[in-house]
């Protein structure tokens, strides 16, 4: 990205595949903070690669081995930098977070091995300030000091579940939010809940009972609407909270199908 020595030794790593809708915002939010932006692409055909290169990012191709393995590859590639910021292709730093990252990297406090950021969903034209909040994620880590952990089949294209970055040491929390454009619209949210529910069921040994199908979705709805105060987010908060409930129900439906050995059969 730049060899300007006045910029702290920060590298940004991003995994992509057909993310043209969000990648320009993602790179644009951090390009002035970093000496290097490395994009590992697994076969984009929608202009993502060209957009990344236009914004000054280095792009390399790597076949998709799963989220966990791909992000571990990024961490390994960037371990020579003092600090590494790992972002998803639908995440972007807000101006307050940009300032916090800049100050933190410059200060280089040796008491900390990593910093968490609060990820906030942008949905249907606005932020969810209550539903799904707070959502702290470790994103800024010392180079060579972090690793990926998670569950799922590393051979699967989408089989990495709950992958997370971990460090052996003290972590702090940065000011500002990480914008998360997880869903393009309501239809996209529903499709993703189906996909995630099916994957979660594959690696979840519990649940799938009638009781869980009756109780768990209601609990998820109460959590988001009442406990997290998603009602205060207005209609978008209600819709997102209902989506969380639907996703929970779908997960237990898929578990029930698996446990019963039910599969579609040809006549």
Q: Which short descriptors sum up this protein?
A:
Spore Coat Polysaccharide Biosynthesis Protein SpsA, Chain A, two-stranded antiparallel ribbon, nine-stranded mixed β-sheet, 25% strand, 267 residues, alpha/beta
Written overview of the protein:
The protein has 267 residues and is an alpha/beta fold. It folds into two domains: 171 residues, Spore Coat Polysaccharide Biosynthesis Protein SpsA, Chain A, CATH 3.90.550.10; 75 residues, no CATH class. It is built from seven helices and eleven strands. The strands form two sheets. Strands 1, 2, 3, 4, 5, 6, 7, 8 and 11 form a nine-stranded mixed β-sheet that branches. Strand 1, helix 1 and strand 2 form a beta-alpha-beta unit. Helix 6 packs antiparallel against helix 7. The longest helix has 27 residues. It is globular. The protein starts with 9 loop residues before the first strand and ends in a 7-residue tail after the last helix.
Which CATH class of the largest domain applies here?
Alpha Beta
How large is the count of helical segments? 7
Given the C-alpha coordinates, what overall shape results? globular
Number of strands: 11
Largest sheet geometry = 9 strands, mixed
Structural class: alpha/beta
The named CATH superfamily of the largest domain: Spore Coat Polysaccharide Biosynthesis Protein SpsA, Chain A
* Low-pLDDT segments: 153-160
Which value, in Å, is the CA radius of gyration?
Answer: 20 Å
Tell me which CATH architecture of the largest domain applies here: Alpha-Beta Complex
**Average pLDDT score:** 92
